[in-house]
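During the no-cost extension, the postdoctoral fellow (Dr. R.K.) reprocessed legacy sequence entries with the updated structure-token encoder. One reprocessed record is reproduced below for audit purposes.
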Amino acid sequence: MSDSKLKSKPKPTKLLWIDLEMTGLDPETEVITEAAVLVSDFKIEIEKEYEAVVHYSPAELKKKFDAEPNGFWNSMPEARDKLIKACADSKTSLEQLEDSLIEICKKNFPKGEMIVLAGNSIRVDRMFIDKYLPRFAALLHYRMFDVTAFKIWIEGNGHEGRKKEERHRALYDIHESMAELKYYLEKGWMILE
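Re-encoded structure tokens follow.
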């Protein structure tokens, strides 16, 4: 690709922050249970907020969790049981979730602008998006903005990373990702010392 083509593309003006909760980390065997999305500008001001829990029966989720008795969710039975109840109570299908995410992109990003995903350890979320939400995935740029990269840099330079409470609910986690980025930027640790 020529330099002129690269320069002619519009620069991003917003970020699409996303956090997914899944039954596990393998997109081949696990499923998306919850999603939260925030649209922000590059001053990290929120312009849109959305969250949805995907419907599954308790039996479907228990089967997933019981497949790994020592797995992540079974180590937090209270959080697991709240997620199972939220999924059982939800009326949102995976297809409806995808439709909502597509609508958010269409309404909040100018036509032709690259849609860059942002969040913590965003590659895992992207693997699930690619597998389970392909129409949404088709709207996304291959570039991603991962706050985890900042944390690695900061800790590698001898600073303490920002601590956060692990609630493992999508909306809370995405707000925490944004707060973590703000914390590092305010500390000024992104320069070489």
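The beta strands are 14-22, 32-41, 46-53, 115-119, 140-146. Residues 3-56+91-185 form a domain with the Nucleotidyltransferase; domain 5 fold (CATH 3.30.420.10). The remaining legacy entries will be reprocessed before the final report is submitted.
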